[in-house]
Amino acid sequence: MKIKVGVIYGGETVEHEVSIISAVQAMNKMDQEKYDIIPIYITKDREWYTGEMLKDIEIYEDLNLIKKYGKNVILYYNKGAYILQNKKFPRNIVTDIDIVFPIMHGTNGEDGVIQGYLQAIGIPFVGSNIYASVVGQDKVYMKNIFEKAKLPLVKYTWFYDCDYKADKDSVLKDINKLKYPVIVKPATTGSSVGIQVAGDENELIDAIDNAIQYDNKIVVEEVIENLKEVNISVLGNYEHQRLSEIEEVISADKFLTYAEKYIGNGKTKLKNGIKTPIKGVSKGMASANRKLPADISDKVKKEVETIATTAFKVLGSSGVCRIDFLIDEKTKNVYINEINSIPGSLAFYLWEAKGVRFTELLDDMINIGIKDYKKRASKTHSFETNILKGYTTSGGLKGMKGSKSKLG
């Protein structure tokens, strides 16, 4: 009997389209002999749809077709099964699901929100749990944990938008302790959204104004002038880890831009006044310019691998993650930049360079998700005894005083 895999993607996020690309890539590479693949697309207005046509990337050119021909559904637990049911009348069951595979990038998906819902209803799912997802999405939380683990980071500071608005001079004074140029980042977005480099204070103010549009928490870091950016993927969980090949990212800017990651060789067309990828060109992160394997020494390679494994474990990550590094080519210092708990294109190209086919990678991820679920299920999360049995509050606040003897 095939395992029914519900692939969840899209959502209310600036990385909505990126998620669609990654999910369609994955759905078309899953082993159809082993799995029944059920698309679960979440629109930008948070409606859930399913239907076979959602496996075709071209359907997303007209979202009205999805709403017209797709089935608007909800996911819930009922009598030992996880059910996709029509949201509108007739509210019949569309299918049941055995395991969910979230392929969501950014806010409301990669950041622990969807993982929290899935864990709350008890369904098995692929990838990092709530805690690792939250930390993996928030660059401030992430850096705090990396610092505690003594992992190498570039110099940085951070602040809330409200602090900046209340006392702009104080925040700028703190940032000016760093060395220009600096890079300004919203703390919880991905795919280089809202990121800008500043060479002086005037450019810094412009970059902050831009970043604040996307987040209430802003990170500012020193830019490494002699920069080489490399990425590695880690597969596994807290018990076991495997490492992919290392790539060297080639960018015309001081960081890999959204366009370089997802537009695909810069080939676009004008559609409704917006530059959009030419059909068939964009391949997600697989389309970015890179050297694979990276042009680095064995010593640097070993350092990247060691730091990546430590970071993956210290965050309690699971499934496939991509970890990004910054290397100062002059000093040869290696710095960890960030972890992506659901990376663009699931970093399959890094694994193919190591001889692991995308289909095999997806199979491994699903198997890890099943093992993680069994481990969670084996732990004690509640007690069968009901401490409220016979408890009464009829005495009002006086009755509450009696709780001391009942509770301990």
Question: How would you characterize the overall build of this protein?
Answer:
By secondary structure, this protein is α+β, with helices and mostly antiparallel strands. The chain folds into four domains: 3-126, 3-Layer(aba) Sandwich (Rossmann fold), CATH 3.40.50.20; 156-222, ATP-grasp fold, A domain (Dna Ligase, domain 1), CATH 3.30.1490; 224-250 and 290-362, 2-Layer Sandwich (D-amino Acid Aminotransferase, Chain A, domain 1); 252-288, no CATH class. 32% of the residues lie in helices and 26% in strands. The chain contains 14 helices and 18 strands. The chain has helices at residues 16-27, 63-69, 113-121, 130-137, 139-148, 161-166, 168-175, 201-212, 258-262, 298-315, 348-352, 358-378, 397-401, 403-407; strands spanning 3-10, 35-42, 48-50, 71-78, 81-86, 93-97, 99-102, 156-160, 182-186, 196-198, 217-222, 227-236, 241-249, 268-271, 274-277, 290-291, 319-328, 334-340. The protein has a seven-stranded mixed β-sheet, sandwiched between helices. Helix 4 (130-137) packs across helix 5 (139-148). The N and C termini lie far apart (49 Å).
Radius of gyration: 23 Å
CATH class of the largest domain: Alpha Beta
CATH-assigned fold name of the largest domain: Rossmann fold
User: Structural class given helices, strands, pairing?
Assistant: alpha+beta
Low-confidence parts lasting 5 or more residues at pLDDT below 50? 261-282, 402-408
The end-to-end distance, rounded to whole angstroms, is 49 Å
Number of helices: 14
**What is the CATH architecture descriptor of the largest domain?**
3-Layer(aba) Sandwich
Overall shape: it is globular
Averaged pLDDT: 89
**What's the total count of β strands?**
18
Strand content: 25-35%
The amount of helix comes to 25-40%
Overall number of structural domains? 4
Q: Could you give a short account of the major beta sheet?
A: 7 strands, mixed
For the biggest β-sheet, the strand order reads 6-5-4-3-2-1-7
